[in-house]
Amino acid sequence: MSATITRSVCPYDCPDTCGLLVEVENGRAVRVTGDPEHPFTRGTLCPKMLHYERTVHSPERLTTPLIRTGAKGAGEFRRASWEEAIATIAARWQEIIAAHGAEAILPYSYAGTMGLVQRNSGHPFFHRLGASRLERTICSPAKEAGWQAVMGETPAPHPDEVAESDLVILWGINAAATNIHFLHGVREAKRRGAAVWLIDTYETPTAKTADRVILPRPGSDGALALGLMHVISREGLVDRAFVAERVQGFAELAETILPDYPPERVEALTGIPAATVEELARLYAKARAPFIRLGSGLSRYGNGAMTIRTICALPALVGAYGKRGGGLFASTSTGPAFALKEVTREDFQARPTRLVNMNRLGHALTELADPPVMALYVYHSNPAAVTPDQNAILRGLGRDDLFTVVHERFMTDTARWADVVLPATSSLETSDLYRAYGTYCIQRCRPAVPPVGESRSNWDTFALLAEAMGFDEPFFRQSADELIDRLLAIPTSMREGIDLARFNEGKGVELPLPADAPRTFRTPSGKVEILNPREPEPLPRFLPAHEEGGTLPLMLMTAPTPYALNASFYEQEELREKQGGMCLMVNPAEAAARGLADGQRVVAFNVRGEVAFILRVTGGVPAGVAVAEGVWWSAHAPGDRTVNALTSQRLTDRGNGSTFYDTRIDIRATA
Ligand SMILES: Nc1nc2c(c(=O)[nH]1)N[C@H]1C(S)=C(S)[C@@H](COP(=O)(O)OP(=O)(O)OC[C@H]3O[C@@H](n4cnc5c(=O)[nH]c(N)nc54)[C@H](O)[C@@H]3O)O[C@H]1N2
Ligand SMILES: Nc1nc2c(c(=O)[nH]1)N[C@H]1C(S)=C(S)[C@@H](COP(=O)(O)OP(=O)(O)OC[C@H]3O[C@@H](n4cnc5c(=O)[nH]c(N)nc54)[C@H](O)[C@@H]3O)O[C@H]1N2
Ligand code: SF4
Ligand SMILES: [Mo]
């Protein structure tokens, strides 16, 4: 039988949101390639998605519901029908609601799929149920808070504008792993003569794209930005006209804050030589249109929001925010393209219920009272792997009186602890609507292949649960496609003027951003707000990070790998092999000081836990830093714990975000 080709969208939590071409034979995806007609994908995929068919048709896919037969966490289950599984869940929930109230039920989800309908399909159900609400702040709310403090609702420039820049700074972003299609524009800028600087904590794979790499001490970038502004101000390199007309609070910053950050002090705080601070400051100020692509890593610290805010002030001094090809790209805000409230249905709540921070799941499961969490429903997330303080979470999941349901594609670290496991479809088996956070593209997709085994989508599963719980709203009886049609029938100003014909063919299309939009500042004052009177601290300044772990000698970078996405893709053996196992990278001096050698098994430890790694000794990581790329499944780890057994539940300064990178550890040889 000949193959047919269906368009689809990469569902993962990646800024690129690629368009896919899926070749299907006999109901199976046999090949997945990048859509050459997609404006950002341009026909190429990242290494993770080159063989998406191996994920979709993996022999490890869950194909039926499962009910626990062994001890909690033992991974012993029997097969069950959907009828039995749903009836079991509904009966246990009714008991729990009668005894403790519906707030004793906690949903837990994040970004296994980014499709608007499948991702959010639990919201109406749990709102109607009156369950506790989850504060979904694991990723980068501090980054948003920092950007908003300075730039308000100003949209990001089109990512391809970077090609028109003459100085590109990749700041805290490992774009070669996490945003590869953005590098297309960076390479184009380079071809036209631009210089590219990378500011990270170790030499990531992105270092190859950069002309210069500088590695500040983790958590110290705020001081670096203040040092750059000090030099620009001191040397009279400020764009006076731009600042006078379009910036609020530069004079206050220059008078009260900048004098404290001469390059010598910045060197002491960041480890970056004073001469390099001066060199970059001059280069930045003299560039025609300097462009900063800001990652999220540096926001996952106790001082994360303030760090981002400080960096966001920098382009204002030289007028870069007013120039095409210049400014700062943090992420695109494409949310208003669709009436998302028609999916999330906050109006189904009788009253706003308690909010539980997802980063503090360990605390929620082990310490929360009034009512305690008695039931956990996990869907498209893997908290036993991705959420900080793994040991606290595992203690919680091990509670005999906790009823845990996990809706998953694979037997993940979390699913292993479930009482009931429900098999989930992959994105190729469902309909959805996508928007991006690294581009202005939107796209609709329909199933390319039938559901694998008895797997069901998030949307269809909540429909079953709604029926079992006796919810009679017609909302729960519509199909995902009906809901998508409804969303598309509601016009929004952001979608005005899209190429509807292409969109209706299932192709990725761009929201038409007015060319001057990023240069019209949507803040209360209409200016770039270096001084923001609505913030507890009206001016940016340097705040120290938490550095959880006290005096331990190494800052732990919980960084992304090019061969996985958070804890996704570990079902593909070839991708695990490309990572070379679950490694911890350190500088030769750190290894030598401890008598450790490359390739050896070591234990990383702090007050929260101990994790076995394979040691990689490399000059690409500076002294004082250790790097653990990837969020491994314990099944493929050297020991029984993975990286987040070392990270902390403490939150960021603003936005209640995670502080993954803000942890100290030490390492020793395994006994
Ligand atoms: N291949 C791959 N792609 C991914 C992901 C993945 O895991 N793998 N994850 C996806 C998700 S959910 C997200 S949110 C994005 C994240 O995409 P990125 O923003 O690129 O990734 P982050 O983990 O946020 O961190 C980026 C870089 O910040 C660096 N960093 C950490 N602390 C500091 C610091 O104090 N200063 C500086 N200058 N740099 C610092 C880290 O070393 C890392 O290289 O990527 C998405 N895409
Ligand atoms: N150490 C460390 N920890 C991290 C990070 C890090 O860089 N380092 N990154 C952090 C960040 S930025 C984020 S955003 C979080 C991400 O946290 P998560 O969103 O939990 O990330 P994933 O590992 O992608 O897990 C998603 C799960 O969803 C499942 N899934 C996929 N599609 C579907 C579906 O349609 N339905 C259902 N029911 N399941 C589905 C997948 O099989 C997968 O196991 O992790 C955070 N944790
Ligand atoms: S993970 Fe990112 S780069 Fe890779 S295919 Fe998906 S959207 Fe594109
Ligand atoms: Mo994320």
Automatic annotation (TrEMBL):
Domain 4Fe-4S Mo/W bis-MGD-type, by residue range, is: 3-60
For this UniProt record, the keywords arranged alphabetically read as follows: Iron, Iron-sulfur, Metal-binding, Molybdenum, Oxidoreductase
Q: Which GO terms describe its molecular function?
A: iron-sulfur cluster binding; metal ion binding; molybdopterin cofactor binding; oxidoreductase activity
Q: Work out whether the entry's keyword set contains Cytoplasm.
A: no
Which residue stretches, if any, does this entry annotate as coiled coil? none
Q: Which InterPro entries match?
A: Asp_de-COase-like_dom_sf, MoPterin_dinucl-bd_dom, Mopterin_OxRdtase, Mopterin_OxRdtase_4Fe-4S_dom, Mopterin_OxRdtase_prok_CS, Prok_Mopterin_Oxidored, YoaE_C
Q: Which cofactor does it need?
A: Mo-bis(molybdopterin guanine dinucleotide)
Which is a Pfam family this sequence falls into?
Molybdop_Fe4S4
PROSITE patterns for the chain: 4FE4S_MOW_BIS_MGD, MOLYBDOPTERIN_PROK_2
Record's CDD domains? Answer: MopB_3, MopB_CT_3
Similarity comment: family membership: Belongs to the prokaryotic molybdopterin-containing oxidoreductase family.
This one is known as Formate dehydrogenase
Species, as recorded = Geobacter pickeringii
